[in-house]
Amino acid sequence: MAPTPQTNTDLAAIAAALRASDDIVICGHVSPDGDCLGSQLALAAALRSLGKRVACLLAKDEPADARLSFLPGFADLVPAARYDGPARTFVAVDVPTRARIGDAASLLDASETSVVVDHHAVETTMADLTYVDPDAASTTMLVWELAGLLGADRTGDVALCCYTGLVTDTGRFQYQNTDAAALRAASEMAAAGADAAFVSRAVFQSRSEASVRLEGIAIGRMRLEAGGAIARSWLSREDFEALGATKADAEPVIDALRSIAGVRVACVLREQDGAVRGSLRAKDGTDVAAIARRFGGGGHVAAAGFTLELPLSEAVATVGRALEEAVAAAPRAPLSSGAPAAPSVPDEEARRS
């Protein structure tokens, strides 16, 4: 593991701080994905097994992805704006920056002790105790280790939640961040009771009709550019309204574009909430986080996101030019097993929405 310079502690010290507290809230980022919710709910289950009072918060007062509703504790998630706080200890998982904790920022400020456990490299920190390891394939890998240091029971709920975060953030163990450490952790979680087949059915084989229809619209509009190296598409506000679709329904769409042979970078723009939100994925050495930073976003080398305050048509044109420039400037990395692994994936920062 390779903690960032912003890391000012280790997981053992964080475990000690959590053992010393009896009033803890755990928050993730806006538009929480499997790694975010898995990290929150796994840590909450571990702490409750030690007799701690714990609440899990949603950064925004909006529905979480229903595909993850099987996670133990999902039904008890509380929007931060409605939480009757503050709490003694505030823990942020899978989110390194204040801007991404939404309505929970005031609870962070009011806490006696604040903690960050994450795998997104950033230049600043927002907490008293910060542990960020970008080499970890998922934040749930760090939570899994933390639960062990706490001396908590990791069987059952903790294992299930941690495995869900790991399998989603590695794209079913297909992305470049799938390394030996990730596979060892998955094996440990399975041995502790995580049902891999059940998680696969629940997360990857339970899409809503609206999600599949959104994908059809996006594929119909898809543009292949730069000799097939770029696949991009977009979804309008009207598309979502016509189908009664949610932001979560759009999440799988980009994977269809990314899966096309020869594609190096995939991009999907979606018009929602008065802005245009972009998701980027790469499957070679192209740094899509650098593209996202041009638009005020960020993320991982192979998965990133951004938000534009532009009309959709203008955003489509602007992003298209940026993609072509980036692909032209980036050397094509080999996709063979001999290629060096790039630190990657989803969706936390890639969902800058």
Please, could you describe this protein's structure?
- InterPro entries: DDH_dom, DHH_sf, DHHA1_dom, Oligoribo/pAp-PDE_c-di-AMP_PDE.
- Residues 244-324 form the DHHA1 domain.
- The protein is α/β, with parallel strands linked by helices.
- The protein has 13 helices and twelve strands.
- It has helices spanning 11-19, 34-48, 105-110, 139-150, 157-169, 180-191, 196-204, 209-221, 237-243, 247-250, 253-258, 288-294, 312-329, and strands at 23-27, 53-58, 78-79, 89-93, 113-118, 129-132, 223-225, 230-235, 265-272, 275-282, 298-299, 303-308.
- Strands 3-2-1-4-5-6 form a six-stranded parallel sheet. It has a six-stranded mixed sheet with strand order 7-8-9-10-12-11.
- A hairpin with a 4-residue loop joins strand 7 (223-225) and strand 8.
- The longest helix is centred in the C-terminal third of the chain and has 18 residues, at 312-329.
Q: Count of helical segments?
A: 13
CATH arch. level architecture of the largest domain:
Alpha-Beta Complex
How far the N terminus sits from the C terminus, by CA atoms, comes to 29 Å
Q: Write down how many β-strands occur, each being a DSSP E stretch of 2 or more residues.
A: 12
Query: How many independent structural domains?
Result: 2
- Major β-sheet annotation: 6 strands, parallel
Q: Quick one: overall form?
A: globular
Structural class: alpha/beta
TL;DR?
Residues 329-353 are annotated as: Disordered. By secondary structure, the chain is α/β, with parallel strands linked by helices.
Defining traits:
17% strand; inorganic pyrophosphatase (n-terminal core); six-stranded parallel beta sheet; 2 domains; six-stranded mixed beta sheet; 12 strands; 353 residues; Diaminopimelate Epimerase, Chain A, domain 1; alpha/beta
